[in-house]
Amino acid sequence: MGNVLREKYMHMRCCAHILNLVVNEGLKECNDAITIVRNAVRYVRSSPARLEKFKRCAEKEKIDSKKMLSLDVQTRWNSTYIMLEAAENFEKAFRWMESEDHNFLSYFKDGNIGPPRAKEWETVQVFVKFLKMFYDATCRFFGSLYVTANTSFLEICVLQKELVRLSESDNNCLMNMAVSMRIKYDKYWGSLDRMNLMLLIAVVLDPRNLYAEYNDAFSSSSVNSTEHVPPLPSTSTKVSEDNHESQFFAEWLLASSASGSTFAKIEIDRYFSDGCEAFIQSFDLVNWWKVNEPNYPILARIA
Q: How close are the terminal C-alpha atoms of the chain, in Å?
């Protein structure tokens, strides 16, 4: 298998790492608001007495949140997201701290910018809502109890679609974040020439009723170099013999086959014509290929 297509597709960039680079570009745009909130969280978390006083302030405002304040690791954007998501729930508690703890305001007079005001909280609220989709995508990329390659291309397309939409936002901070992130995104995922096309193979080797979603995401994406893109089956139509395989899909699958190109082509035809599986969250893709190996021995080996 190591010699398939001269090992051209053996190197796969880490999707989570690329996403980390993309999001870090966006973080630079709202850095002041993040720093101000971080300083407030750092003050509260700096001693048990301050934390206890903060909890009493939260009780006065009847804030019932299971997410307590946590200080981020600045080199990990996802921890910054978690910090801000928790902190925005305690906006009123931070206001109480100004009157309940005289050291709170003094802390910000000693060279620490802050405290957070309405402007910063508004920015954080927008920021958290925006980054949630990237945080959720990162969690899915990091999944260890299920396969992820079959959904990675969809994740990439959906994120790209959102970046394009938000690049035209009326909110300047949000727009600037999206534009910066889109530039970094395009560096790695802006066209299929920059992607490992094994992501597309993984899409096709998922027999569930997901292909229409991939079609929608792909057609709306600016990832538009479609020279070697395999047509993805629709949930409501079957693929004809004339268009069921693209140049890339056919070339790779046939090159991967140890049983000869004729047998592989027949098996590919049958795989597509057999229709799609219903989409359910508990679907076990690896087990599906284990069970169906007698029906598609070549494809099962590749999968």
A: 12
- Identify the residue whose tokens are 């609220």: 125
Q: Give the three-class secondary structure for 207.
A: coil
The count of other CB atoms within 10 Å of the CB of residue 269 is 14
Q: Quick one: CA torsion of 35, 40, 44, 50, rounded to 10 degrees? A: 150
With a CB cutoff of 8 Å and minimum separation 6, the contacts of 227 are 192, 247
**According to the model, what pLDDT value does residue 129 have?**
85
Model confidence pLDDT, tens digit, residues 242-283: 333 345 555 555 555 555 567 777 887 788 777 777 777 778
Q: What is the model's pLDDT at position 273? A: 79
Q: Enter the DSSP assignment of 259.
A: S
Q: What is the mean pLDDT of residues 15-34?
A: 83
Structure tokens at 249: 């899909």
Backbone angles phi, psi at 277, to 5 degrees: -80, 150
pLDDT at 237 over 80: no
The CB-based long-range contact list for 25-28 (8 Å cut-off, 24+ gap) reads 25/180, 25/181, 25/183, 25/184, 26/130, 26/131, 26/177, 26/178, 26/180, 26/181, 27/77, 27/80, 28/180
Q: Are 159 and 185 in contact (CB under 8 A)?
A: yes
The pair of three-digit structure tokens given for residue 139, joined into one six-digit string: 């969690």
Neighbours of 34 (CB within 10 A): 21
Helix ranges restricted to H, the chain: 15-27, 31-45, 48-60, 77-88, 91-100, 102-108, 118-141, 149-166, 172-189, 198-204, 211-219, 247-256, 261-273, 285-291, 297-302
pLDDT of residue 214 exceeding 90:
no
Closest CA relative to residue 260, chosen from 205, 303, 297 = 297
Burial of 239: CB neighbours in 10 Å, binned 0-12, 13-18, 19+:
middle
